[in-house]
Amino acid sequence: MKGLIFTYLLTYGGAVASFFNPYIGLLIYVCFSIIRPESLWHWSVTPGSYSRVVALALFIGWAMHGFGNWNFGRSGVVVAAFVGYWVWTFVSATQAVDSDLSMVYVESLAKIVLPFVVGMTLIDSVQKLKLLAWVILLSQGYVAYDFNVAYYGGFNRPTSEVGFGGMDNNCIAVAMVTGVGLALFMGFHAPVWWQKVLGLVAALLMAHVVMFAFSRGGMLGLCITGFTAFLLIPKKPKHYLLFALVVAAALRLAGPDVTKRFYTTFTDEKQRDASAQSRVELWAVCWTLMQEHPVFGVGPSHFGRVVNRYGPFPHGKEAHTLWLQVGAEVGFPGLGLLLLFYGLCVVQLWPLTWERYPVLDPWHRYIARMVIASLAGFAVAAQFVSLQGLELPYYITLLGAGVLKLASASSPNQILIPYANTYYRPQVPVPTY
Predict the structure, then answer these.
(1) Domain annotation covers residue 431
(2) 3-class SS of residue 417
(3) How many structural domains does the chain have?
(4) pLDDT tens readout for residues 339-383
(5) Which of 186, 253, 257, 349 has the greatest count of CB atoms below 10 A from its CB?
(6) Which residue has the higher pLDDT, 347 or 280?
(7) Mean pLDDT rounded to a whole number for the chain
(8) 50 and 164 together in one domain
(9) Phi and psi at residue 417, in whole multiples of 5°?
């Protein structure tokens, strides 16, 4: 019953609030994309158009407030790559054998692209970025908490037939991996102790879900997240100690079954189990399709239609890899645009993570670190799962693109210049007209 009240309150209360402040609608839309109320509280929340109601109110409120600020600065190339990827999926869909099937994917991607662009026009302060980060953390953290409660109660939801929001154990693991980096750095950099505890506990809950989901790709992605976080944490003893405690707690949560299954990822072909071997063969099929259809691919959502022509695979079998399946379905141009979307965001954020790099607000640096750590783990874990519709990494990238927008929107008298290992703000006169 609490889930039903929560869902209706956010849906209709948030819709009204969006007319006055459209950013509230964006935050609720992101929240619903993560918690999936119809699945999380399936016993009380009936299927409905909750996200659609919020999205409609978001767009109306956005229009009423003048469509936001379109000066994206350095984040413009990230936004352009994402919109370009969406456009290319439409072009590819027109060339597909079953255009109607492909257009379903194009439409579902629009439900992510349009809120992403709206969000970019609305982000105009660090406070809004922090609100978005906390909404993502609390939403993903609550899902992880719910899964942990069920697990200790004897029900392993990720590995059951129930799943979560149409996702199997591997997809759930990748979603959790993507949230760990954000939660970890929120725990490091939050200004008050209880927020630090909340961030670190959420990170451990998400990491534990990855472990009992028994996903090798998720485990590998989790290791990459941890390694990337180690490179990005401030080089101070207290941060190293805190990081060590988190790693120790995570290792304590991992049982022998998790470790044994993870090691099978690296065995040779003779020792590799059937599931892992099947992935390698499916990846080979993807590469063949990319060579045969390099420009438009076979069409969005079409890999399952053609895979049975290339081996003993059933009709509808997915490739178990995000990157190669994207290349097979929308060609090299589509894959390139998606990689640019994530890659350009990470590359441009990287200098902001350096302590010696000048930033106008320390949260530019903090958010840059959490975004890079999250996307690094996601990039590796996604190689093992087909999950083009997972919204979380797109909204993590929205955080990073928002930082780039704010960092490049400074006025001349706010530019920081390095001088003798220190930084100062030159008093540059602003011309008047």
Answers:
(1) no
(2) strand
(3) 2
(4) 999 999 999 999 999 888 888 899 999 999 999 999 999 999 999
(5) 349
(6) 347
(7) 87
(8) no
(9) -125, 130
Choose one of 67, 95, 113: the last residue of a domain: 67
Helix (H, G, I), strand (E, B) or coil at 336: helix
Whether residues 78 and 30 fall in one domain:
no
The predicted structure's pLDDT at residue 425: 40
Tokens 């869902």 -> residue: 7
Asked whether the beta carbons of 236 and 250 are under 8 A apart, the reply is no
Is residue 350 one of the residues assigned to a domain?
A: yes
Short-list 376, 377, 370, 346, CA closest to 222: 377
Domain co-membership, 60 together with 82: no
Q: Which of 49-53, 159-163, 346-350 has the lowest average pLDDT?
A: 159-163
CA distance 8 to 5: 5
Q: Hey, is 422 helix, strand or coil? A: strand
Which one of 67, 87, 102 terminates a domain?
67
Q: Treating both helix axes as pointing N-terminal to C-terminal, what angle do 322-349 and 76-95 enclose, rounded to 10 degrees?
A: 160
For residues 76 and 114, give the distance between their C-alpha atoms in angstroms, rounded to a whole number: 15
Torsion over CA: 90, 325, 337, 174 (sign): positive
Residues 4 and 51 in one domain: yes
Residue 331: inside a domain: yes
Strands in 223-366 per DSSP E:
none
Alpha helices in 65-192 (DSSP H): 76-95, 99-122, 126-152, 169-189
Residues 46 and 109 occupy one common structural domain: no
- Looking at the structure, tell me whether residues 48 and 155 fall in a common domain: no
Range of the domain at 143: 72-419
Percentage of the chain with pLDDT > 90?
A: 64
> SS3 sequence, 163-228?
CECCECHHHHHHHHHHHHHHHHHHHHHCCCHHHHHHHHHHHHHHHHHHHHCCCHHHHHHHHHHHHH
Tens digit of pLDDT for each residue in 301-332? 999 899 988 888 888 888 889 999 999 999 99
Domain assignment present for 430: no
Does position 168 have pLDDT exceeding 90, yes or no? no
Mean pLDDT of all residues in 160-182: 89
Q: Decide if 65 contacts 118 (C-beta within 8 A).
A: no
The pTM of the full predicted model, rounded to 2 decimals, is 0.89
